[in-house]
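Page 47, continued from p. 46.
Same chain as before, 115 aa.
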Amino acid sequence: MPIIGPGPDDPEYDNHDPAWRHQDTPFRAWLVEKLTAANFPHAADIAIGYAPANRYHGLDDLEMGTIALLTDTSFDEVRAAHKADIAAWMREQQLYDHPDLAVVDADLNRIAERH
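Result:
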């Protein structure tokens, strides 16, 4: 299928993030865990398609239902994994918007490890 508009390698393609295929997100980890438990031999490959879509475009009811079926989980469990991933993404965005928070976070982690 031909690409309409800028391709993934063009700088104008704002939605392209090469890290999508490798980004370790809470939803991707959950999905790989559940697919592995359901005996899918290529769980990580399946997660490559759904994890980025979950974070960047959201999942519709059909996709969530398909994931629930594949992972032998409920629709609500898929939704909970989705919400946890979005919450993690929001925290990441706060750090990107306020890099000084990363320093505070590192200090708090260091203090917590001492006690």
